[in-house]
Amino acid sequence: MSMEAFYIILTGALVAGSAALLGSFLVLRKMAMLGDAISHAVLPGIVIAFLISGHRESLSLLIGAAASGLLATFLIELLHRKARLQEDASIGISFTWLFAIGVLLISAYTGQVDLDQECVLYGEIAYVPLDQISLGSLGSGPRPTLIAGGLFVLSLSYVIISFKGLKLLSFNEDYAKSLGVRTQLWHFSFMAMVSLVTVLAFEIVGAILIVALLVVPAATAYLLSRSLIPMLVLAVVLGALASFGGYYLAVALNGSIAGGMVSLAGALMLITVLVLRFQKAKANPKALK
What we know:
This protein is mainly α. Helices cover 78% and strands 2% of the residues. The chain has a single domain (3-206), classed as ABC transporter involved in vitamin B12 uptake, BtuC (Orthogonal Bundle). The protein has 12 helices and 2 strands; from the N terminus they run H-H-H-H-H-H-E-E-H-H-H-H-H-H. Helix 2 packs parallel to helix 5 (87-109) and helix 2 (34-41) crosses helix 9. It is globular.
């Protein structure tokens, strides 16, 4: 394995691990498309950051995107809690409204500027080895890999520290409230964490890959697990397998690496569904009629 391949696979696995840990709770809470919503909701933050800073430097745009992502999570919560809308409806309304504002701002104020959110924010995992950063006496290493490692440590630490609160919130929110658990605090901290990881991962691996990694490994693990901790571990393992196998699938087909990783993650889920269905049919042939 070349060093370029190693860094790409490692970066994908680290991002997949972060996404799987948080995505498992998204799946349990029936909020699986929150990552996709954030990918649209960040547009006004990108435009406003550009209008304030006057340039397309990556850090300022990421800060604007993160702020916009947090605003989206706040609006979703506001519509769900105060307006009593269903969570999926709140997500749909929030991200389409913010995305429309972003489009309006682009057309009104940046018509003469090449401000394409896909080229200034959405990354491509194949370019990971090219973005090197000095590590002093240790030499140099890919900046995206270091960021991905930091995200994984941050996500793992958050899940470990918040495990009890997230578990109660995901399975029985009313029971959690009766125990005196501050459910809104856990909810907002979780939404903020998802927004942070999603936005930072955009620049590293691209929008399609991070949205898929938030949902597919976690959903597959959900089908195979009967308790939360095995589900979290299995989701991380499946995400890493998708990164490893997806890279070599893309190389074999001379295609997109992100596409290969998403395709393999989907294939693993399809195989899981078929195997479970076969086992069910074998155990009870009449159950599927």
